[in-house]
Design brief:
about 190 residues; about 30% strand; globular; 11 strands; alpha+beta; single chain; Alpha-Beta Plaits; five-stranded antiparallel β-sheet
């Protein structure tokens, strides 16, 4: 993780930032799937819990080779009017590190009940007793709207940042550039 490139979303009067971020992140996901990449991580320099937002910048972290391979895919095609991106640059010397990971929540008791009914052959009443309304969780994390490449289902990808660390931790990243173990430089 000694190199990075930064992508900045530009304001657009026709599209909200959240829509553009979803489109950008979806394109990144498809490119990482195509490359079968597990060596590129992401960070969100403008991440905020209050107000809850990812901001308008996305950083990609990896080796110079991994980032060059990604950018050779021309995965930003169609986004030219909406983004500006930097060269592939070395990470500054004095940085901290943190994990950036997906966090999943049980946000719909009714959806959980339907799933339970299907998997266990239960009636709606049995599922209601097993999964009360209080099982729902209300997340307070920034997110991006996504569509799964494998199931074509729409979902909300909640992003959680780990604590700052002085030392990096190696590991693999998923096809969203996220990891619960591997860190990315934070600056």
């Amino acid at each position: 993780m000694d190199y990075y490139l930064e992508i900045r979303l530009l304001p657009d009067p026709e599209f909200p930032l959240s829509f553009l971020f979803g489109a950008l992140y979806g394109k990144l996901h498809r490119a990482l799937v195509t490359l079968e990449s597990d060596d590129i991580g992401v960070s969100f320099p403008d991440y905020s819990l209050s107000p809850r937002a990812l901001g308008n910048r996305l950083r990609l972290h990896g080796t110079e080779t991994a980032l060059s391979r990604l950018m050779a895919q021309d995965w930003l095609r169609g986004m030219a009017d909406h983004v500006r991106y930097s060269e592939i640059l070395p990470v500054p010397d004095a940085v901290h590190y943190r994990t950036v990971a997906r966090r999943q929540f049980k946000t719909s008791s009714e959806r959980l009940r339907r799933r339970r009914m299907k998997r266990k052959g239960e009636t709606h009443e049995q599922a209601v007793r097993a999964i009360p309304d209080s099982a729902e969780q209300t997340p307070n994390l920034p997110f991006v709207h996504m569509r799964s490449q494998s199931t074509d289902q729409h979902f909300v990808l909640f992003i959680e940042q780990g604590e700052l660390r002085d030392q990096p931790k190696a590991g693999q990243f998923n096809t969203y550039g996220l990891s619960r173990q591997a860190t990315v430089p934070w600056f």
